[in-house]
Design brief:
Udp-n-acetylmuramoylalanyl-d-glutamate--2,6- Diaminopimelate Ligase, Chain: A, domain 1, single chain, UDP-N-acetylmuramoyl-L-alanine:D-glutamate ligase, Protein-Tyrosine Phosphatase, Chain A, about 500 residues, alpha/beta
Length: about 500
């Protein structure tokens, strides 16, 4: 139970009908979940408008409606109506108050950017746990609260769910939370109702532009920039040419990191490491901290991810030794995840599932001068054909051998998707084979691996299923590899 007046204490509102002095049993934004005595927030969604269900929820026993436009109710309806400017914004503050403002009991770290968010959240969690902190995580793959792992539907959950997770983290003894903050989450006010202790910007490239997302690149940048009006300390990648635009109008203290620029924290003397089926980078941290680092993942973007994590963890007074140890041991499922199959060649799993990500990954791996670069991938069904042509062209141009296979065909025929990928490869003189069954394709790559090869299984990453005709069948590439090695 909570007093309505307390739930509204940080909002500007108008009480159109009824009284604020009543008790509310629970807060709900899904009309199907309304129970007697509850407060219902009328959210305007992409396809459904909660205001249209006002009569229905009152009949189900809702005692309070929070609205942003006028609604029609019978005169005898015993219900309080609260009018606000934006119900999504209001929901964030109502939810925070309902769960007892749990973010005030946590150090909250929010990471935004086009690439690197997922990996960096896991690196930060790993480093801070080395230093004895208890860290919750909210991101694209999952939500982690103590030993509990919850599958994620959105990168940044709806504000009510976010506050519920914060509450569960506090109750589980967490003192810190590191979370991915999407531009959608910022645009839809999911992260209102509290202040981030640290807001981080990794990089930005045109992405998420289209219907129900951002109208253009400027809008995308300005939504990312909202984080720097909601945090105490902002930490930004100074090498990204848009960093000043993204942080325009910031209200926080700003710090910078980078490799090329004159940043507060720098990575210098980068050296590629390879051998024994492993790939990594060594570099020196300079500026605000000064020590050498080795990481067990390849490429410049891995250095950026590590440097981002160091820039954050510096504020938690983590020892250099703990940072070094955690960075060397850290593994992120499906993000340049090296899987040991041989001392002669290297095999990795990565989530690269569009042309931009695949090109970035393959160009990074080419720097290691492999004997051959082998790319194994497919494309998802019921998605853009353009993505297939582009990925085929990138792989044909950059890999020495492409093994075209199936990804999540959904409601399309796998062979039809493969044929589209071949149109892209056809624009290059790249060699390829096609093996529709993904396990057979991986087995072929391993059986034909040559000394010095780097083999990339791209597109599935952390996913542990294959979606065929509306059914998600269990399929984890790590299990497939173990089965292949065991001869099963």
């Amino acid at each position: 139970m909570a007093k309505l007046k307390d739930l509204l204490s940080k909002l500007e509102y108008q009480c159109v009908q009824g009284t604020e002095e009543i008790e509310v049993t629970e807060v709900v934004y899904d009309s199907r979940k309304v129970t007697p005595g509850s407060l219902f927030i009328c959210i305007v969604g992409a396809n459904v408008d909660g205001h249209d269900f006002a009569m229905q929820v009152v009949e189900a026993g809702a005692k309070v409606l929070v609205v942003q436009r006028e609604i029609e109710l019978p005169k005898e309806a015993d219900v309080t109506v609260i009018k606000v400017e934006d119900t999504r914004y209001a929901m964030a503050f109502i939810s925070a108050a309902y769960f007892g403002n749990p973010a005030e009991k946590l150090q909250v770290i929010g990471i935004t950017g086009t690439k690197g968010k997922t990996t960096t959240t896991y690196l930060v969690k790993s480093i801070l746990e080395q230093a004895g902190r208890k860290v919750g995580l909210i991101g694209t793959i999952e939500v982690i609260i103590g030993d509990t792992h919850i599958h994620a539907n959105n990168t940044t959950p709806e504000s009510y769910l976010l506050q519920q997770y914060f509450r569960q983290m506090v109750d589980a003894g967490c003192d810190t939370v590191v979370m991915e903050v999407s531009s959608q989450g910022l645009m839809l006010h999911r992260t209102q109702g509290f202040v981030f202790d640290f807001g981080i910007f990794t990089n930005i490239e045109p992405d998420h532009i289209g219907p129900n997302e951002h109208k253009d690149f400027e809008d995308y940048m300005s939504c990312k920039g909202l984080l720097f009006k909601q945090c105490k300390v902002g930490i930004v990648n100074k090498d990204d040419k848009h960093w000043e635009q993204v942080t325009d109008g910031h209200t926080c203290k700003l710090e910078t990191y980078g490799i090329e620029s004159d940043a507060d924290l720098k990575a210098e003397n980068l050296k590629l490491l390879s051998g024994g089926g492993k790939l990594g980078v060594a570099f020196d941290v300079k500026g605000l901290m000064d020590f050498p680092v080795e990481i067990a993942t390849p490429g410049k973007f891995s250095v950026y991810n590590a440097l981002t994590a160091i820039a954050i963890c510096r504020h938690f007074e983590v020892s250099e030794e703990a940072i070094q140890k955690a960075l060397l041991a850290a593994k992120v499922k499906g993000r340049i995840e090296l899987v040991k199959v041989s001392d002669d060649f290297t095999l990795m799993i990565d989530y690269a599932h569009n042309a931009m990500a695949l090109e970035s990954l393959l160009s990074t791996l080419k720097e290691y001068k492999p004997h051959r670069l082998v790319s194994v991938f497919g494309c998802g069904g019921n998605r853009s054909k353009l993505r297939r042509y582009e990925m085929g062209e990138v792989s044909g141009r950059m890999a020495d051998l492409t093994i075209i296979t199936s990804d999540n065909p959904r409601f399309e025929e796998p062979q039809a998707i493969i044929d589209d990928i071949k149109i892209g490869i056809g624009k290059t003189d790249g060699k390829y084979v096609e093996i529709c069954d993904r396990k057979e394709a991986i087995a072929y790559a391993i059986a034909n691996g040559e000394p010095g090869d780097i083999i990339v299984l791209a597109g599935k990453g952390h996913e542990d299923y294959q979606e065929i005709k509306g059914v998600k069948y269990p399929m984890d590439e790590r299990d497939l590899i173990q089965d292949i090695l065991a001869g099963r």
